[in-house]
Design goal:
The complex is a heterodimer of chains A (333) and B (257). Chain A has 13 helices and 2 strands. With 333 residues, chain A is mainly alpha-helical. Chain A has a two-stranded antiparallel ribbon with strand order 1-2. A 6-stranded mixed beta sheet of chain B has the order 6-7-8-3-9-10, with helices on both faces. A 4-stranded antiparallel beta sheet of chain B has the order 2-1-4-5, covered by helices on one side. The chains are: A mainly alpha (333), B alpha/beta (257).
Chain lengths: 333, 257
Amino acid sequence: MRVRSLLAASGVVALLVLLEVVAPRVLNPYYVTILSRIGIAVIAAVSLQLVNGFTGQFSIGHAGFMAIGAYASAALSVFAGAALLDAVSQVVPLSLARIAYFPLVLGFGGLVAAVSGLVVAVPALRLRGDYLAIATLGAGEIIRIAILNIDVVGGARGFSLASPAHPAIDLRFESLAGVFGVAVVTIAVIARLVYAGGGLAFRAVREDETAAESIGIATTRVKVEAFLVASFFAGVAGALFAHSEGYIHTNSFGFVRSFELVAFVVLGGLGSLTGAILAAATLTALPEVLRGFGEWRMILYSLLLIATMILRPQGLLGQRELWPISRLGRGAK
Amino acid sequence: MSLLEIRGLSVRFGGLSAVSCFDFAVEAGSLVALIGPNGAGKTTAFNVITGVYAPSEGSVVFGGRAIGGKAPHVISALGIARTFQNIRLFRSLSALENVRASLEGARRSGLRDVLRLSSWRARQDAATLAARALLDELALGGFADARADSLPYGEQRRLEIARALATRPRLLLLDEPAAGMNPAEKLALRELIRRLRQDHGLTIVLIDHDVSFVMNLCDRVVVLDHGERIADGSPEAVRRDPAVIEAYLGSDAEFAS
């Protein structure tokens, strides 16, 4: 057991080093950007899987929480981050300060998104099925339109991370190891939540709410917890997105983005983390791969989605997991 | 004092009265049958006791505490467990996971699961052991890793009982446990219910359609018809009760006309 986890850990570290050191030198910046977007999509998809796939609550407004994480973290960076980094860099090297700064920014984006997730979850989770889906869709749009009307974060102009007061400090965060490191942490945390003892509560709610209540599971609380964790990681994904792109606009977080995330978890298989990862990576890369087809590419993309759902209605992996993840939580035999 | 005491219970859904002025007391350690024709209000009574419905009128007192209208998970924690008429297992989970889900210690979620604090593994192992013991007790040991919905019908019914027992109840409510069983299976089920009552010190209320299944099993039979209690007594007495015969077969007058 110990040997295996050691192997897994060193595999992850090797992968991160490869992404950080080798990828930017071998690949052109276009591919590096796509890789980074894949990592962000994975984080968002895995977090949504906790709600839709494991707790059985159909949320289709997840991009709204990404928007909150993106804008909250970007605002922190623009209004305080540059000044903070500037001050700290008088004492320690700037590169060192940045390494400590980014977890802080991501955590902040996640926390603000989690709080807003709680605000949405408490009333919305009293609803079931279609009604819940519509409520989350509405919540996502409310968030997007509210941000669109806040002028300090750019409103309809979008929001740039460039800080005029400290032009020397680049607030962007272009590190594949950073993005995928966060993705690994997200996957590990959610895998442990759903496959360890407590995860049974999520899955019991998905399977049968009445029965879950009857054996003492506080179903509303479990649903709110799932929503809270999911919106936290969506916020982290949004913060990563803001800091790797350097410029954000509410258009990136509309319901099209939300539906894309739903497609990831349904196509990957509701109740499969590895399925969500696989689908997020494939479907993020696919439109780029299909660029050669010009204006036909989105039609091909849609046809591929339809074909997959006809051939594998349960999603790519159903409720199964590829090897290591399902074991991650199985502490007890 | 009775373990469960229901007084003047009425449940109405809009204009429809499912249960009216129902008085029902269950002594600790007893095995009581609740019988009656379809639509008599038996399952509604269970749903009120377990918190699925709130009473429209009347009180439900369990172990000296008023539980009417409390949430089902709160009532479960107080020591009432149940099975369902139309089996409600966690279908895509394994038999073992179905039982583990009932074990509060195994289920508590949150940071402990993520951080794997030292007590975590010990608690998980203890829960698995307890769940396996329950599966063995109900002769389900061989199905531990099978998906719940892949189990044969009788095994699914027993798994539901195992899951209910895992909450360590004082009062167990069985909603038509014998439904769809053949005579041999019913006989085995009767034995099982007797044994569980003994071994777990349970108080049991079970629902069935007719008196024959509960004849040699229960101490007491309560008959419901159209939401009202029409008989209460030993199985023999209830079987001869004219009101009960009328509820099931109709009155002589109806036959005559």
